[in-house]
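Q: Hi! First time asking for a complex rather than a single chain. Here are the components, and I think there are four in total. Is that enough to go on?
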Amino acid sequence: MAARHEEIAEALRRAIDREDYTVGSLLPPETELAARYGVSRGTVRQAVATLTAEGLIGSRQGARRVVLAGRRSQSFAELRSFAQWARAMGREATGRVITQEWRTATAEDRVRLQLDPGARVLHVLRLRGLDGQPVLLERTVYADWISPAVEHIEADCPSVTQRLLDDTGLVFAYGEHVIDAVAAGARDAELLAVRRTSPLLRVRRVTTTREGRPVEWSDDRYRPDAVSFSVHNSIGNNALARKTAE
Amino acid sequence: MAARHEEIAEALRRAIDREDYTVGSLLPPETELAARYGVSRGTVRQAVATLTAEGLIGSRQGARRVVLAGRRSQSFAELRSFAQWARAMGREATGRVITQEWRTATAEDRVRLQLDPGARVLHVLRLRGLDGQPVLLERTVYADWISPAVEHIEADCPSVTQRLLDDTGLVFAYGEHVIDAVAAGARDAELLAVRRTSPLLRVRRVTTTREGRPVEWSDDRYRPDAVSFSVHNSIGNNALARKTAE
DNA sequence: GTGGAGCACTTGTCTGAACAAGTTGGCCTC
DNA sequence: GAGGCCAACTTGTTCAGACAAGTGCTCCAC
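A: Yes, that's all I need. Here is the structure of the assembled complex.
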């Protein structure tokens, strides 16, 4: 936390948390906040823009900003790492590799991961749990250039993301997620301890490095009684988009 | 489209669409863009910040911005209105009210919609389709102050959002969405023309006005073979958050 | 050739100022 | 009392400049 605008954003978040500003109430004007924190109006605007993007407050020209949400659905709960997310919630994440094998990249793999023809990719089927309960089945395909580092990670490593960061310095920086629902197959049902045909929440995602290079793509299936997703959107900020089947 | 920074954002979007900048390539430096469009660096930064939030480009201090995604998953495809979204995709939206009735607000209704005890709310069950195929079943509860306007809308109105805007000037400005999966019940199955227990994608949402006042909350169930959702997130921008069951 | 130092380049942060545009509430008129 | 107009307030847009901080490349020494 170096930047002044981040400090101010955090101070405002805490104030909302503390209910200094309750849901539905109005935030002070920018000029007042600028004076209070001893910064220029631009810096305050940067701070409140962050909160607006997070969905905590609403903003429109001419009117004072309004507090939209109170409970801080821990937005630092990173989507990047299952283990980091679990720890942030005070839960313990477990992970276990079920199967792991090398295959030649299919046409779909090559498109999603920007690979050359004939590249060898690593397919990993991993079961993940929260406090001992299985909640997520991941079918992940890793790009050829990162697969060797993934291959030798022990089967019960709780955080692959952290492990890759420590070993190779790799950071998962961007992700594209497509969400739908599927019926559990026989394998899914057995591993997740649900009945066959019971509904699962599916997230297909592609993760890329800071440079924009795809690292992995994955078909993740969650037990919907254990995990859900939440998105905030506003008139000027459409993070979530509806899609039709291709 | 009045603001200069929006024009520049749109110009850059089109350039990425046209593949003037291909996926993985680098965007010109801010100073060069500023010179090209005859604006200050701050205005360019506002434009590229928009594209960064949309997930089209990646940004990090010291390095040139990189193009992350090419295909413009029409991000103006509003999440606010099913009908507007369908039209933007060149599809025809239909809607039909199945049941509609007044009830006294439950405790849950009062919390979600910020209502006083004893308020009367309107429950509407609405089936929506794309090009004649049923794809979405909406169970919506409208706040007492807007329900009278909703009550008299004809049963087959294709766009309730548009209708409320025309009739009352109401704008749906903010939304909080929680996404999971459920098995189709008997009623769901019959109306959506799927087998009972087949998986449905469920979105529970609360919509508010520009002033931050809740208008409606809804349990929407989509046929996952027809509709999915997509979200982009990045290291500094977590629109999507994972949640555990309460 | 390998590693490190250094440098040019690029993005991030912040200021202070000015004007545009939308909102809100009060006042005045009819 | 109802309606409309206006003025104060507040957020949105844009500018020009300065410095901080991270990246990536070249070049040099070993």
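A: Residues 4-67 of chain B form a domain with the Arc Repressor Mutant, subunit A fold (CATH 1.10.10.10). Let me know if you'd like any chain examined more closely.
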